[in-house]
Amino acid sequence: MPHIDNDVKLDFKDVLLRPKRSTLKSRSEVDLTRSFSFRNSKQMYTGIPIIAANMDTVGTFEMAQVLCKFSLFTAVHKHYSLEQWKEFASQNPDCLEHLAASSGTGSADFEQLEQILDTTPQAGNVVTGEMVEELILSGADIIKVGIGPGSVCTTRKKTGVGYPQLSAVMECADAAHGLKGHIISDGGCNCPGDVAKAFGAGADFVMLGGMLAGHSESGGELIKRDGKKYKLFYGMSSEMAMKKYAGGVAEYRASEGKTVEVPFKGDVEHTIRDILGGIRSTCTYVGAAKLKELSRRTTFIRVTQQVNPIFSDKS
Ligand code: 5GP
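Above: the input record for the complex with guanosine-5'-monophosphate. Below: its predicted structure, written as tokens.
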């Protein structure tokens, strides 16, 4: 008989962070930089652990140029040619430490890791503690957590599969940290407060798609209609992406992403400042002088309402 898990699982929208006694006098006292030492590869990384998603509308070189100035990370999408990579690398040498290529880097270690991950059926994103442990013990340093929370993801609709993101992050972080591994919360952040909640829940890194879409530096066609500007944003498993890169949706599968028009938001720099300012503020409310301390200072309160709806619009 199928099993029903009766524990309540929560999304970002179901909680708020409880304010705590704080001696911090100014948001400028908060340090958002973290240094990581990875369990298996022994590599180190220092930066603000927010990642632009490896979608062709988000993980662009233009995005990376801005994000690296803030020490944020970009997972560059896999549709750039080797020539484009070489040109970017030669012109932006300072950016490279904050970049990940979505395709292989060619080093033997990476190939081996890829092979290991290839042989693990659910590799890609996971949402349960058991899978996190299995992947870390198989050689992975960082596990990406999230099935179905993405803004242009239709997996939950098409397949009925998913896991509320806040609970997924809390459970997976617990499993990963027990083995000295790390996790990325991938998808489902709508506002700076959600990014703060993901860190509070234990995410080491937070990956953003929709929040970084629609900017000058984002990919996707710019559309002008009735005096307004929009940018096209689509899931990497959407019909749009599959047509663009794979010649269409294969017969045996359904698209699991959609296409939307995002109102044009201007330069991404403003959005980044807004996100970082929000998280600094979160840290002062809960008394965390460093981002690293945020999860230790986090108590979530379950809520039935996030914001006052009286003048409600998208914000
Ligand atoms: P967002 O920040 O927009 O809520 O979520 C971004 C994440 O959505 C990406 O990092 C990726 O994991 C996921 N994603 C991107 N495109 C698709 C898609 O077409 N289908 C699904 N299921 N997930 C997608």
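Notes for the reader.
The radius of gyration is 19 Å.
The chain has nine helices and 13 strands.
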